[in-house]
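For the sake of transparency, this paper describes our internal protein records without simplification. Because each token names a local backbone shape, the row as a whole describes the fold. One such record is reproduced below, unchanged from the form in which we store it.
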Amino acid sequence: MENADGTTTKLVTGDAGYVLEDVPHLTDYLPDVPSYPNPLQDNPAYSVVKQYFVDQDDTVTHKIVVHKDSPRGTHFRRAGPRQKVYFQSDEVHACIVTCGGLCPGLNTVIREIVCGLYHMYGVTRVLGIDGGYKGFYSKNTITLTPKVVNDIHKRGGTILGTSRGGHSKSKIVDSIQDRGINQVYIIGGDGTQKGAAVIYEEIRRRGLKVSVAGIPKTIDNDIPVIDKSFGFDTAVEEAQRAINAAHVEAGSIENGIGLVKLMGRFSGFIAMYATLASRDVDCCLIPESPFYLEGKGGLFEFIEKRLKENGHMVIVIAEGAGQELLAESLQSMDAKDASGNKLLQDVGLWISHKIKNHFAMQKKMTINLKYIDPTYMIRAIPSNASDNVYCTLLAQSAVHGAMAGYTGFTVGLVNGRHAYIPFNRINENRNKVVITDRMWARLLSSTNQPSFLDPKDIAKAKREKEPANGLLENGYSENKN
């Protein structure tokens, strides 16, 4: 099936509405590529495992909440080691590249790809590409060994460096070909994975025996299909420190307001989960839920009400919230960064001024507002225990997939099972908070804030929500809210 971006999806259908959205394999365009027994069967670490290998027919269902008469729906190929591999250990020349913004867990993923290749498959040639996609043709490489990466998971950032943009398809594939690289591991967000899909298509067009594996990265948790992105748990945990500081500051002074801006350009998951985890937040503002400042039911009225009740309050705002209000106020331009992402104005600073000016003009109440922006502190820390385990499994899943000859795929957790997902499913839309869902209702119940929606907005949001029996979309795939 051809997708909007010109790529094709391998669809396998079965009984009772079963659909497998498969990922490409080297044998799709190189039918004579030889296979070899998987060396894991001789690995002493795996000698205690009852079943070394994932069954070739194992798949992971996209949607697990169904009705008794529902079709079986969309599935993805289960990740894990296969009985046959399509690379001999001594022929593998792998490379790893990190692109886009920083995120907790990047170094852990790098470490575990290197250690997985070395310790599970006996691969000894692994390069790190310095400085993102541009590093393929403009910078030096770093030789990666288990000794080099031994302690990097304890540090934030990425030892490989990163950058935005640089998707020069022909230059990148020329570099891959010239260096004799045959496995490419690409760690990055939606823009990076789009670039990975283009690189895969060019490699396929040239008929090269090169596996391209993606590991999706976004601190905002806005990548579709997968349960969550790595670094998200760490971000939510670290956000608690900022919220706690705001709560202490606000509670220590008369009519204190602690305002915390968290990441979330288009999706408010960090703000929502940090608010639910904290229980110190009085109001959470996210991009998916419009709000207004003045008039009855507006934010200013709610702030005044909460200050009269409690004497202080904490507001959490995602960086992408209220951008339409800010754009009207500042007449901002639609500027974009090197990755094609819209450059957002600082909504935290803007709303701080708006709140201060409103209460200064009203002269009914003197407020004391403290603004905290922990964005770069959160992005730059090492991953916590939960994310370290998740990063390890993602990295090993990518290594297993590439060794087994799969290519043009990304790895992710789908309903608690690791799966290989076609690039187009990762790139086709953005995961967002559903404001007609129970999780958002739980937040509103926790903070006791208004929804800032009028009845017409609520009715519209409910109409846009997936219908109760909407299990299949476009005849083959599913929504996941």
